[in-house]
Amino acid sequence: MKFLKTFLNSPVGPKTTHFWGPIANWGFVIAALADTRKPPDMLSGNMTAVMCLYSASGMRFAWMVQPRNHLLLACHATNETVQLFQFSRWAKHEGCPRQLWPLMG
Amino acid sequence: MATSKLQALWNHPAGPKTIHFWAPTFKWGISIANIADFAKPPEKLSYPQQIAVTATGIIWSRYSTVITPKNWNLFSVNVAMAGTGLYQLSRKIRHDYFNEEETASIKE
């Protein structure tokens, strides 16, 4: 009961946007997890690559922002993982670009 | 005069020496990727993804005004995200629900 009260009244708790911002960001993660079941030709290489960069910088941001936001950090760490997976699926489907063929031997 | 203003920007708590600058800068990538995806046919758009983009954009526009340091770069990028997300959603919804009426009337 006490834990619940502390959580509810926390400066990063559900009465504040510091809670709901990160909750909204979990939407990306859930969307990505839903999209893992989609065939790779439906994936956007642009968006997935951008998401990888975004969540990498987001993890650092969550750590450095005032107040420090562990929920956001967890969200971005998870998103980074899923997006990297999706990117690998997309890249595998795309195959090796022509320009790199000489390197492939 | 101009140099001191530039210096002020360079040394700003949400300036280019800090993650408070680079995180939103990378976030612009999401809006840019979404704009590039305006060219994609609506069947290939993802409802979950676009809803996530729109909802995040709206909520974070508020979040960016209450964190320390206050971050207008982050504010503007989230407004843009909400905008592109809403547009993509409208494209897909129009395709899924209003084109059906057209094809249905043609069939008749």
TrEMBL record, chain B:
- Recite the UniProt keywords alphabetically: Membrane, Mitochondrion, Mitochondrion inner membrane, Transmembrane, Transmembrane helix, Transport
GO annotations of cellular component type: mitochondrial inner membrane
Membrane topology of the entry? Multi-pass membrane protein
Q: Pfam families in the record, alphabetically? A: MPC
**Gene Ontology BP annotations:** pyruvate import into mitochondria
Q: What is its main location?
A: mitochondrion
Q: Which domain of life is it from?
A: Eukaryota
The record's subcellular location field reads: Mitochondrion inner membrane
Q: Provide the family line.
A: Belongs to the mitochondrial pyruvate carrier (MPC) (TC 2.A.105) family.
The record describes the protein's role as: Mediates the uptake of pyruvate into mitochondria.
Q: What is this protein called?
A: Mitochondrial pyruvate carrier
